[in-house]
Amino acid sequence: MLEQLEPKSVFQFFEEICNIPHGSKNEKKISDYIVHFAEKRGLYCKQDEANNVLIKKAATKGYEAQPTIILQSHIDMVCEKNGNVSHNFETDGLKLSIEQGKIKAKDTTLGADNGIGVAYVLAVLDAQDIDHPALEAVFTTEEEIGMGGAKAFDVSELEGKIFINLDSEEEGEFVIGCCGGNKTDVLLPIVWEDTPQNSVPYLLKITGLKGGHSGSDIHLQRANANKLIGRILFEIFNVYDISVASVMGGEKDNAITREAEAVLLLKQQQVEQIKENINYFNEICAKEYQGVEENIVFSLLPMKENVGQCFSKQTTEKLIAILLLLPYGVETMDLYHNNLVESSSNIGAVKTEEEYVVFCNALRSSVESRKELILQKIKMIAKLTEAEINVKGEYPEWPIKRNSDIERICKQIYHAMYGKQAEIKAIHAGLECGIFSKRMGEEMDMISFGPDISGAHSPDETVDIASVKRVWEFLLAVLGYKM
Fold it and tell me: Which of 460, 48, 435 is nearest to 222 (CA)?
């Protein structure tokens, strides 16, 4: 599919990556693929128990005295698909297409975040005709679910003090700082009851939302299907005699939820009235999100399956309260950087299990105390609803470094190549730079950049072909710069 594209080596490696299942916690095959790549080329390689891989390559002639550069990308991807698709991320490769100068995957996430970064690094290591200093290539796992690979990586193996992360998604922007965060789950114990007599099962669905990245897209104020289903349940539960048997929405806490559903048990004589309420609420949401969400669809569909049990009334009341009260969206904006989100929260997934309804939240902030404040709010909601809390996946912020040499060099090269200034920014998303910075010390000089990627963490994800080429040329210019 991609063999005619330039740069040929980058797209060759990217297509090979796309053919290997590599969702978070399923990275063994792609990790082994990278190890085989290194062994075939006679490069130093080390794979750890977390499936992280380190590859080292000696400097080319004339660059032996230049500082060692660390190139870093993560090898896992977010696995999201449209609701009617049977794709199995555990076993199936991605089905690629090219549309209007962009690469996308059919009905699934593409994994350009961060597969294209991995492809860049492999192409550099593979090349025999480019100038560069000594290189240390770091490939990490589980970035998308809490950066577990970066936390487990043995940084004592690294000698370089210049660190280039290739996990950014807007060409011409250089990232020099990011927020920290965690994953906070709320677990509501379920009290089950027998299904009420003379009730019929219906499936309430919300579809058509844009979704997106819970960090980089949170400021766009897109609708979250989990929040909307909480609102509509609140509207009808307090008016009609209904029971709830299940609520499901989203798969990843770091993706804004595009679809959600609830299994309801209704009195047949009330179904038409409830449908009218749902249609009216659909109109309200269309007005609220005018210009942001054009395709919100609420539907109430009869079910053929028998539903033997449902939540107790008290469990349902607590469920609705949690859905309504959990924070979603921007909490605070940075006072010193225009248009930069400081703190946010996203209720990315809701799952009904045997004993609990689980609400999965991604908390982010560039200020540790603000992140703690959001967590305190969620803990209070859990306390009032007699739910449990599970906090995991903590990762630190990446503080901005003043007088950075690699920032200066990148700005200088970018201006020389394109005749314009690059944008220097911090982002409201977690990058592994925060972990490496904290563990390797303040002397580390770090920057992150990448090509244009849109719709990351959703089936709308694309990567711009021309942008990939330009960023490749820029990366080679940076590696070839003599300090």
Answer: 460
